[in-house]
Amino acid sequence: MPKISKTAVDAGLRECIFSDLLTAKPADAYSYNYVKINDRQYGIILTDANGVERYCRVGVIVAEEREDMTARELMAREIDEYNAKQASKAEKARVRAEKAEKDKAKREKEKEA
User: Structure pTM?
Assistant: First the structure.
């Protein structure tokens, strides 16, 4: 069986957990058995797409109160920063792909000559 990349495996595990937690249902109907690790985290053992058992933690981070912005403003700012970073990554990937395509065409043209 081909080994699936860590990025894909981790994303799949996160999707399983978030889907389970964010589906509207009573806590005793969760698909997985979350175990309290400490006051801030719960843990779970899941088998990943490569068939390996993985320990996953679900934690809650409470942001500090701020005098310069409300909780809603802070949340909106963090979402905007995340979206901007994702857009930047996508643009860089697009530029790399275009360059790779141009370089490939150039190499093929040189090969024909």
Answer: 0.72
